[in-house]
Structures are given as structure tokens and as C-alpha cells.
Amino acid sequence: MNPSQYVKDKAVASGSSFYYAFLFLPKERREAITAFYAFCREVDDVVDDAKDMSVAAQKLSWWRSEVHQAFLGKPSHPVMQALMPLAANYRITESQLTAVITGCEMDLSQTRYLEFANLKQYCHLVAGVVGEVAAQIFGQTQKQTTEYAHTLGLAFQLTNIIRDVGEDARLGRIYLPINELQQFNVKAHQLTDPVLLQKGFDPQTEWGQNFIALMQFQAKRAHELYDQALALLPAQDRIAQKPGLMMASIYRSLLREIEADGFQVLHQRTKLTPLRKLWLAWKVQALGILN
Asked: What domains appear along the chain, each with residue ranges and CATH number?
């Protein structure tokens, strides 16, 4: 399998909302973002699939070395072979790729965040930098678009965290800040309760009400970040950044689905259908309508 096909298969297999935004890009930009996204998936999968943290750490160390070698002109992995011919065209740097690896490494050693400021630094590495690179590939011309991309990346990551509370808890990870759990009287150990993770929670109970209030607080922050990001996007870059706006429409629709479902995120993972994702992406592309 050639590198181009490898990264395309990786992107398609992920089922991510990002893939639907890529479909509307010109060929070279589509190839660049697909290769970059495949890189992000590869390093993220190292952590998500890890059975042994020391083995995962070694694999991420290998990826750090592979990125360095790739920028020296010696890529060996199909992802880097697909990405490197396009990296210079879109100002993709070694430090940006290693920042994503650093964020994934944090998942090997840190499973709790005391407050939002700590979580925000993690989100910067695994989502903000990703947004920055994506904006470059899409065709950024204005300096302020970088701030837009970082803010939108943070909104995406917070949406992921809300969606994946139960899934992450099964892996022993809680991304909701500890001081905010305390604020709403939700204990960290309760989020890993096997019964809640299997059957969900009763919204009529006191704990259920506390949990809903906690999640409403998280969702409000995410919505504010979506609004901030859209306000930051310069008019000169709005057309070029349509793929990011497509993703914003898809992710925000997902967040609203979670809200409408009463934040039943402990025992299930809310998803949008592929057809709905494609429809939301098309509405932004053709009509400029964001949900």
C-alpha cells in the first residue's frame, strides 16, 4: 500500500467528523490535511490502545525520533512519507508535530486535572496545535486566524471531553477539572462507578441533578469558545477556513445532541450519522450556514 492510500484509509477508518470537512478541499490541500490527520490518529492510538504504559511511552519516543528523521529527509513510516512532501508548502514544522506527541505523552502520566488552567494546557497540545496546522493547510493569510484556530481547537476538545466522560472513565481518566467536580458535589470515584458506567444515571436523583449541572457548566464553556472562535476569524480568511467551520457546525451539533439527551454520557457515546455530518458540512460549503 502506498503512503497516500495508507493515510486515506486511516482517516476513513477513524469515522471522524474531520473527514467530512476534508472532502471539499482542493486535491493537494486534501492530501496534506489527510496525512496530518493520520499522523494525529497514529500517535493518539498509541495511548488509546495501550495495555502497558511503558510500551506506549517507547512507541511515542519512536514517533518523536521518526518526526525528527523525517524533517532530515529520511521518513520511514507511511504517514510521514505522505506528509513530508507537502509540509513545507503549508509551513508545518517539526515543533508542531512534536507538540502533539507531547500532549499524547501527558495521557500516560496524568489522569486528573486540578483546574481548568491545567486542562487548557493539555488541550493546547492535542487540539490547539492541531487547529493551528489545519488552518495553515486550509489557506490562512491573516495572523489572527491562528488565535481563531487555537480557540476552535479548544472548543472541539472540550466537546470531546463532554462526549467521552464515561469512555475515559473506563480507562481511568477524568478530564473534568477536580475543583469543578467539587463545586458541583460530584466525586471523582463516582464517575468510575461500574453501575453508572453500565446503566447510566437517574436524572431525578440528587447526584443526577449535580452531574447535569456540572455538565451544563462544561457545555456553556464550550459554547462560549465556539462563539469566541467565530468572532476571531478574520473576514479575509473566512472562505479559506470553511473546512474548520464545517467541523465547528458538526461538533456543535453533537454538543447540542448531548445536551438534548440530558448528558447521558456515562454509559453511551453520542454520535451523529455520517449522512448528517455530510449534510452539515455541505450546508457550510454551499450555503454558508452554521448550525
From this structure: 1-109 (1.10.600.10), 112-291 (1.10.600.10)
User: Do the beta carbons of residue 169 and residue 192 sit within 8 Å?
Assistant: yes
- Ramachandran region of residue 139, left (φ > 0), alpha (ψ -120 to 50) or beta? left
Mark out the alpha helices in 110-205 (DSSP H runs): 116-123, 129-138, 144-163, 165-170, 178-183, 188-191, 194-199
CA quadruple 202, 187, 105, 45: dihedral, nearest 10? -10
Task: List % helix, strand, coil for the chain (3-state, nearest 5).
Answer: 75, 0, 25
Q: What is the pLDDT of residues 156-208, one digit of tens each?
A: 999 999 999 999 999 889 999 999 999 999 999 999 999 989 999 999 999 99
Give the distance, in angstroms, between the CA of residue 224 and the centroid of all CA atoms in the same chain.
17
Residue 266 contacts residue 165 (beta carbons within 8 Å): yes
Cell numbers standing for residue 35 = 496525512
Give Cα 251 distance to the centre of its chain: 10
Which amino acid, residue 189? H
What is the phi/psi pair of residue 271, to 5°? -135, 155
pTM of the model: 0.94
- Judge contact between 81 and 7, C-beta under 8 A: no
Least confident interval from 13-17, 223-227, 267-271, 284-288: 13-17
Instruction: Report pLDDT digits (tens) over 247-283.
Output: 999 999 999 999 999 999 999 999 999 889 989 988 9
